[in-house]
């Protein structure tokens, strides 16, 4: 009976969700959060006009142009792309310019991988052109390599280390196998690629190969390119292996802009370059090497999908590895367009997507850049029709993201002071695909993202992007209880941001609240960072009709217009409080886990969270009251400006001035890339990583820094509440 009645409730709830976006949106009631009645009506009118403008055919044409030739940082076609984007912005009527930075970017002079015994195999290290794919045979492609590897020439026995994450080395130790003096071969996946050689070096290895196992993005998942979207046998994933978990951007200018004449570190002074030679290889090249390994069988979870018996080694396979790079400084061209605000010109909404690829880079990054240009064109149209955004909107096409978030980091470092004064929100994308809305970012913007997602029509289902996401969460929830939890949650959760794209310097260094959004999940594939990520692949296997490109432009356009036009900015803090509480619970579990210390004191953190919860709900209550009686919208513009500044500068209060242990560039106390996982986010990173290492002393120091930051954040929210309730003003 119990089960049956809960099934009924559930059926009703799902029916409500399935009722379509209109039904759900109706529940939101009239009005628009942060807008007076009159302004809400005008805003919705302009948003409607905006949404009608982005055109899939134009997004397609943008991609065709920008991805026509290899356009990595420093290449001739990348400069052409920069000029083309600049002229596009100008043709939309926007004020645009190029900001140049000079950055250290090594490219290959010499690469060699050979099996020297038993037998001999010379790795091809080359992706062959494919007849159907017209750009795959172009000249000017960067050879297969990883940037910021050490130069070196080593010959040593090989050891297979699975994904090369810390647990894999524990497992090897249990097997009695050391990688000291060896070359390791590791597969892509489970961690940021730069972590793999870093850990290999820490364990004494002298070289590192990283290969794409067909189990992870090759024939195990589906047909390979050109028959299907997955990685062919000679496809290689290029990438960066800079230790960006220490700091991203130009390695020679940590923390300051790589402008002309800026002070630069000598190469020996730089701390985030790899210490051993590293090369990425295809599974075609990996197979003969892995096949020649002896020693114990690899643990079951370590085995991939090659038709071989996976063994760990060491040897008898012995490998000769050579890497030599040209360590040159090249120009990075950021293209920046500005739409000045009419009422609050000193409040900046910053929007960016990179436009450099490893090779032709159609999916990564041009699918996002092409949509960004459509947003900018649509704004140009609206400006001609008389739209006047209250706040300044800044559109950025970043160069040099692939090697090390170079263009965005140098810009965010150069303009750090202005960004901390004026930066309202930074909004990022990095390519786009087909399927579900995928959002990550500052949790103070979580409610806002939900509100906007309800207004975007999903191209495949015709329901809202938000409803589609909710249905997926329902599908994924395994139990009735979990399904009810999904239904009862007010907002769909957004994820925390680690690293791996251009939001990192804005959020984690400057403390500007950030969002990163894209569609995806239905268009799997294995051409990431290969020559096959091109227009042909994208128009056969990606968002082939560019309708999700249009949805992306509509999503961003709506987010940005609402931020630019709101009377009161849409920051909400109860979502922050509840999300951080879940992180705190994870810390408690850590202290209870095997090897945990029962004595570690999380009481100060709990108290700080209780105060935050209280302040956040007081702000919500005050805001709701002020909106209900409309009093807030009668305040003088200067008062609203002061309130808004308190709101958007709140994120900066979450920074600690000392930054994280061993990596002071990262200052955010809630979000950072993991020191041993790289891309993957570590929330409450200072405390969490110290607890994981059983370093109780550092954990206590970091807890104090976190509590201090949360206290300052809470005080800022309370100051905003006081502004709201101060009726005399
Ligand atoms: Zn990218």
How do the strands and helices of this protein lay out in sequence?
Layout: H1 2-18, H2 21-27, H3 37-51, H4 56-66, H5 76-91, E1 95-117, E2 121-122, E3 146-147, E4 152-160, H6 166-174, E5 183-187, H7 195-202, E6 207-211, H8 214-217, E7 239-240, E8 278-281, H9 283-291, E9 318-339, E10 344-354, H10 362-384, E11 391-398, H11 401-404, H12 406-414, H13 416-422, E12 423-428, E13 435-441, H14 446-453, H15 465-476, H16 480-488, H17 503-510, E14 514-521, H18 535-541, H19 547-565, H20 574-592, H21 603-628, H22 637-648, E15 671-674, E16 678-683, H23 685-692, H24 696-725
Helix pairs in contact: 1-16, 3-10, 3-19, 4-10, 10-19, 12-17, 15-16, 20-21, 21-24, 22-24, 23-24
The structure holds zinc ion.
What does this structure look like?
The protein has 729 residues and is an alpha/beta fold. Helices cover 41% and strands 17% of the residues. The chain has 24 helices and 16 strands. It has helices at 2-18, 21-27, 37-51, 56-66, 76-91, 166-174, 195-202, 214-217, 283-291, 362-384, 401-404, 406-414, 416-422, 446-453, 465-476, 480-488, 503-510, 535-541, 547-565, 574-592, 603-628, 637-648, 685-692, 696-725, and strands at 95-117, 121-122, 146-147, 152-160, 183-187, 207-211, 239-240, 278-281, 318-339, 344-354, 391-398, 423-428, 435-441, 514-521, 671-674, 678-683. The strands form three sheets. Strands 1, 2, 4, 5, 6, 8, 9, 10, 11, 12, 13 and 14 form a twelve-stranded mixed beta sheet that branches. A two-stranded parallel sheet has the order 3-7. It has a two-stranded antiparallel sheet with strand order 15-16. Strand 5 (183-187), helix 7 and strand 6 form a beta-alpha-beta unit. Helix 1 (2-18) crosses helix 16 (480-488). It is globular, with a radius of gyration of 26 Å. Mean pLDDT is 92; it is low at 1-30. The structure holds zinc ion. Zinc ion (ZN) is lined by residues 354, 364-365, 401, 430-431. Residues 354, 364-365, 401, 430-431 line the site of zinc ion.
């Amino acid at each position: 009976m119990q089960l049956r009645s809960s099934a009924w409730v559930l059926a009703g709830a799902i029916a409500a969700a399935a009722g379509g976006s209109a039904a759900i949106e109706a529940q939101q009631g009239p009005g628009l959060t942060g807008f007076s009645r009159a302004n809400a009506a005008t805003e919705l009118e302009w948003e409607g006009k905006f949404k009608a403008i982005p055109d899939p055919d134009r997004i397609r044409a943008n991609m065709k142009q920008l991805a026509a030739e290899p356009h990595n940082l420093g290449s001739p076609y990348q400069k052409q792309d920069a000029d083309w984007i600049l002229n596009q912005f100008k043709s939309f009527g926007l004020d645009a310019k190029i900001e140049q930075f000079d950055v250290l970017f090594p490219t290959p002079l010499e690469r060699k991988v050979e099996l020297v015994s038993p037998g001999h195999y010379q790795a091809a290290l080359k992706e062959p052109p494919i007849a159907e794919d017209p750009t795959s045979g172009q000249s000017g492609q960067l050879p297969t390599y990883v940037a910021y590897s050490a130069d070196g020439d080593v010959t040593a026995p090989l050891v297979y280390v699975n994904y090369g994450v810390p647990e894999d080395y524990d497992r090897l130790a249990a097997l009695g196998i050391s990688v000291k003096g060896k070359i390791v071969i590791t597969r892509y996946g489970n961690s940021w690629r730069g972590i793999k050689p870093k850990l290999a070096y820490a364990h004494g290895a002298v070289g590192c190969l990283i290969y794409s196992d067909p189990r992870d993005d090759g024939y195990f998942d589906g047909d390979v390119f050109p028959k299907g979207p997955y990685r062919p046998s000679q496809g290689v994933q290029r990438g960066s292996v800079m230790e960006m978990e220490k700091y991203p951007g130009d390695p020679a200018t940590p923390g300051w802009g790589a402008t002309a004449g800026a002070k630069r570190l000598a190469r020996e002074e730089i701390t985030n370059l790899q210490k051993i030679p590293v090369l990425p290889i295809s599974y075609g090249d990996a197979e003969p090497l892995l096949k020649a390994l002896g020693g114990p069988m690899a643990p079951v979870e370590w085995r991939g999908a090659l038709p071989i018996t996976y063994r760990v080694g060491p040897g008898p396979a012995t490998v000769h590895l050579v890497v030599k790079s040209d360590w040159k400084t090249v120009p990075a061209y950021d293209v920046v367009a500005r739409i000045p605000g009419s009422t609050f010109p000193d409040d900046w909404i910053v929007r960016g997507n990179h436009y450099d690829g490893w090779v032709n880079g159609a999916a990564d990054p041009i699918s996002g850049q092409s949509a960004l240009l459509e947003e900018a064109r649509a704004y140009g149209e609206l400006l001609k029709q008389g739209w006047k955004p209250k706040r300044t909107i800044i559109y950025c096409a970043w160069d040099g993201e692939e090697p090390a978030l170079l263009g965005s980091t140098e810009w965010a470092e150069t303009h750090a002071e202005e960004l901390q004064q004026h930066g309202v929100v930074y909004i990022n994308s990095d390519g786009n695909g087909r399927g579900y809305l995928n959002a990550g970012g500052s949790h103070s913007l979580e409610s806002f993202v939900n509100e906007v997602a309800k207004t975007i029509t999903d191209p495949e289902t015709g329901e809202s992007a938000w409803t589609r996401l909710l249905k997926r969460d329902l599908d994924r929830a395994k139990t009735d209880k979990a399904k009810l939890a999904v239904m009862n949650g007010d907002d769909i959760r957004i994820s925390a941001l680690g690293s791996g794209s251009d939001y990192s310097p804005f959020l984690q260094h400057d403390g500007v609240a950030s969002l990163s959004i894209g569609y995806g999940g239905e268009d799997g594939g294995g051409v990431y960072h290969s020559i096959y990520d091109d227009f042909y692949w994208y128009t056969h296997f990606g968002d082939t009709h560019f309708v999700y490109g249009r949805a992306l432009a509509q999503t961003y356009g709506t987010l940005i217009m609402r931020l630019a036009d709101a009377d009161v900015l849409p920051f909400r803090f109860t979502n922050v409080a509840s999300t951080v509480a879940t992180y705190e619970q994870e810390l408690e579990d850590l202290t209870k886990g095997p090897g945990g210390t029962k004595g570690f004191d999380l009481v100060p953190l709990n108290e700080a969270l209780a105060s935050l919860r209280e302040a956040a709900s007081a702000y919500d209550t005050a805001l709701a009251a002020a909106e209900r009686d409309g009093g807030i919208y009668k305040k003088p513009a200067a008062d609203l400006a002061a309130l808004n500044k308190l709101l958007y500068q709140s994120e900066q209060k979450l920074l600690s001035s000392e930054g994280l242990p061993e990596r002071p560039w990262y200052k955010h106390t809630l979000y950072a890339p993991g020191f041993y996982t790289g891309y993957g986010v570590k929330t409450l990173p200072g405390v969490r990583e110290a607890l994981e290492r059983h370093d109780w002393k550092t954990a206590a120091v970091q807890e104090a820094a976190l509590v201090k930051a949360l206290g300052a954040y809470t005080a800022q929210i309370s100051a905003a509440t006081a502004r709201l309730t101060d009726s005399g003003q």
